[in-house]
TrEMBL record:
Name of the protein in question: Transposase IS110-like N-terminal domain-containing protein
Residue ranges annotated for the Transposase IS110-like N-terminal domain, each copy included: 13-75
One of the protein's GO biological processes: DNA transposition
Organism per entry: Verminephrobacter eiseniae (strain EF01-2)
Source taxon at top rank: Bacteria
Record PANTHER family: TRANSPOSASE, TRANSPOSASE FOR INSERTION SEQUENCE ELEMENT IS1111A
InterPro entries xrefs: Transp_IS110-like_N, Transpos_IS110
GO molecular function: DNA binding; transposase activity
Coiled coil feature spans: none
Length: 91
């Protein structure tokens, strides 16, 4: 599923903040689409997210666990969303 069609899906709740790990640029299109849809987006350093997970006792690395730990990281560390458009910041 592409990001534009995923953003069109009906949802019951809109998140206060979407946190993505920086992945060498692979997060760029997702972050731009989420931001264009009106969501606050924070792109965080994967080392910080992993250190947080390790401190919480999460030693395994799975997609499900990563999602849970990123959500906990967002609640605990409260990373700041990008104030300006991600696309403009790069361009």
């Amino acid at each position: 599923m592409c990001w534009s069609s995923a953003m069109a899906l009906p949802n019951r709740r809109s998140p206060a903040l979407v946190v993505l790990e920086a992945t060498g640029g692979y997060e760029f299109e997702a972050a731009c689409a989420l931001q264009a849809a009106g969501l606050d987006v924070a792109v965080v350093n994967p080392r910080q997210a992993r250190d947080f997970a390790r401190a919480m006792g999460a030693l395994a690395k799975t997609d499900s666990l990563d999602a849970k730990m990123l959500a906990a990281f967002a609640r605990g560390a409260a990373p700041a969303p990008r104030a300006q458009s991600i696309r403009q910041a790069v361009g």
